[in-house]
UniProtKB/TrEMBL annotation:
It comes from the Eukaryota. It comes from Fusarium solani. This is Uncharacterized protein.
Length: 221
């Protein structure tokens, strides 16, 4: 665990460098692409929100989430390059996969299934720090309408599918994600909240692929 070697509240530069530049490593027989991809994504997120300005590493919700979710703990692994370090990383991955199978019988290999599984939504993506929305309100009568479990995790994942919606831009998708919506005969206000990160699931069309800048620049209302 990186935190056993460095203080995340003081050694910000070193910790951030390790998180960003050391991807998961293990013998080829232990490969699990879905978990590896998720760990890379989480380490990028950790470098952004767990250190420095936001310093969420010591927050209560992070501690609670790590107690329940072995993936979140594994994302702090040192992932060194020596033979001994590779063996430790391999054993750590084995332990994570075993724990996941014991939690609700999870036996997932793809990144898409891994990052949207109930465990990740419940412990991580459903946190207010990642929410695109302020608390939702019904309009008649005007009152707070609590999000159902994991609901905020699902609605805060932007899905830009240009096969189904040719020509749609990221900003157009964002703009249509807020306002008043009628659901099951009731009207609800979806107001904006500024998340620390924005998750985007992008499906290009056959003829046109958006540039990286087209996918990383957006404005919230």
């Amino acid at each position: 665990d990186i935190r056993a070697h460095y203080r995340v509240d003081e050694d910000i530069e070193f910790v951030g460098q390790i998180l960003v530049t050391r991807p998961p490593r293990c013998p080829r027989t232990g490969l699990n692409p879905g978990l590896d991809c998720l760990i890379v994504v989480l380490r990028r997120i950790y470098a952004h929100i767990m250190l420095g300005r936001y310093n969420l590493a010591g927050s209560d919700w992070v501690k609670k989430a790590e107690e329940e979710n072995p993936i979140l703990r594994h994302a702090w692994h040192m992932f060194g390059t020596s033979v001994e370090e590779l063996q430790r990383a391999s054993q750590a991955r084995h332990d994570v996969l075993k724990a996941l199978r014991e939690i609700d019988g999870l036996d997932i290999t793809s990144f898409n299934e891994m990052h949207t599984c109930d465990l990740m939504c419940r412990t991580f993506w459903s946190q207010h720090d990642f929410s695109l929305y302020d608390p939702r309100h019904s309009l008649d009568p005007f009152e707070l309408d609590e999000w159902k479990e994991n609901e905020i995790a699902h609605v805060s994942l932007l899905r830009l599918n240009r096969q189904e919606n040719p020509g749609q831009t990221l900003q157009a998708l964002v703009d249509k994600s807020y306002g008043i919506f009628d659901i099951d005969g009731r009207s609800f206000l979806y107001g904006p909240h500024m998340p620390l990160i924005v998750r985007l699931e992008y499906t290009p069309d056959a003829s046109t692929r958006l540039s990286f800048d087209d996918l990383r620049v957006l404005g919230l209302p």
